[in-house]
Amino acid sequence: MQVRICGSPRGAIPWGHPARNSALNRPLLTELARLTGGRVFELADVRQLDDSIPMREVTRTLETRDELWDAPLLFSAIILGLTAEWVLRKVYRMV
After folding, report:
1. Which H or E run includes 4?
2. If you ran DSSP here, which 8-state letter would residue 53 be given?
3. Mean pLDDT on 79-92
């Protein structure tokens, strides 16, 4: 017997496949929680779930970019320097 699952590349899971076993694997959950520093909660302990998540302070870094044409003094200095260089090349025939 095969069950069709949406999104599965082959469309079916064989009868003996581990994905068919939907029972709770408490030893695996406990081991994963231990390895990752987590905790396994029972349904009766659901009220403790909110208190067990530590709140951390979040710092944000705001980055601002000023475009060249938004800084008129710098933009003018660059244009003036390029114009002066062009004029001096023409005066001294440096092409």
Report:
1. strand 3-4
2. S
3. 94
CB 52 within 8 A of CB 39: yes
Nearest to 39 by CA among 30, 27, 28: 30
Token readout for 45 is 């302990």
CA 14-19-25 angle, to 5 degrees, is 140
Whole-number Å distance between alpha carbons of 14 and 36: 31
User: What are the tens digits of pLDDT across the range 24-76?
Assistant: 888 988 999 999 988 898 888 888 888 888 888 889 988 888 777 778 888 89
φ/ψ (deg, to 5) at 12: -150, 155
- Segment 49-63, tens digit of pLDDT: 888 888 888 899 888
